[in-house]
């Protein structure tokens, strides 16, 4: 079980967050399963080199935990990326979100969705997630 303290929302310019008006909410994520790159590659049915290529190409994202590169399992639906994950990640990157910030945004519950953006993607409710991710860029 992974536990990390991460910021969600807008922050102060110069701290790695996009300069956007808003409030920073701190959320403790406690139920995220993280896969090492070899485990991630095994789930995808590819070798480690191809797993790294999928991360580098933007199909998935990875973060470091205790110096080890890991992939949040919530990005997968079986052995495939969750439907609509790639365009959402593209929108988050366009909004200058780092992979850590994308993880925080995707995994933080939002009562108006309801659930987290990851939950909505897994439940085929991607339209609202994409709309919200697109709005982060403005």
Would you mind describing this structure in some detail?
The chain has one domain. 38% of the residues lie in helices and 22% in strands. The chain has 6 helices and 7 strands, in the order βββααββββαααα. Strand 4 and strand 5 form a beta hairpin. The longest helix is centred in the middle third of the chain and has 10 residues, at 85-94. The radius of gyration is 14 Å and the shape is globular. Mean pLDDT is 83; it is low at 1-26.
Q: Which structural class do the helices and strands define? A: alpha+beta
Number of domains: 1
Could you spell the SSE succession in H and E letters?
Answer: EEEHHEEEEHHHH
Annotation, overall tally of beta strands: 7
Radius of gyration: 14 Å
Mind sketching the topology for me?
Elements: E1 2-8, E2 25-32, E3 34-36, H1 37-44, H2 48-56, E4 63-65, E5 68-72, E6 76-77, E7 80-81, H3 85-94, H4 99-107, H5 117-122, H6 126-135
Helix pairs in contact: 1-2, 3-6
């Amino acid at each position: 079980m992974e536990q990390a303290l991460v910021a969600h929302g807008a922050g102060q310019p110069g701290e790695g967050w996009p300069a956007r008006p808003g409030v920073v909410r701190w959320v403790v994520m406690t139920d995220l399963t993280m896969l090492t790159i070899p485990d991630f590659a095994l789930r995808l049915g590819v070798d480690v080199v191809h797993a790294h290529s999928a991360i580098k190409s933007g199909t998935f994202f990875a973060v470091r935990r205790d110096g080890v590169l890991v992939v949040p399992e919530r990005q997968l639906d079986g052995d495939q990326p969750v439907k609509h994950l790639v365009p959402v990640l593209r929108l988050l990157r366009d909004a200058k979100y780092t992979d850590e910030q994308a993880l925080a945004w995707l995994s933080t519950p939002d009562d108006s969705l309801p659930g987290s953006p990851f939950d909505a993607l897994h439940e085929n409710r991607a339209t609202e997630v994409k709309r919200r991710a697109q709005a982060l860029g403005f």
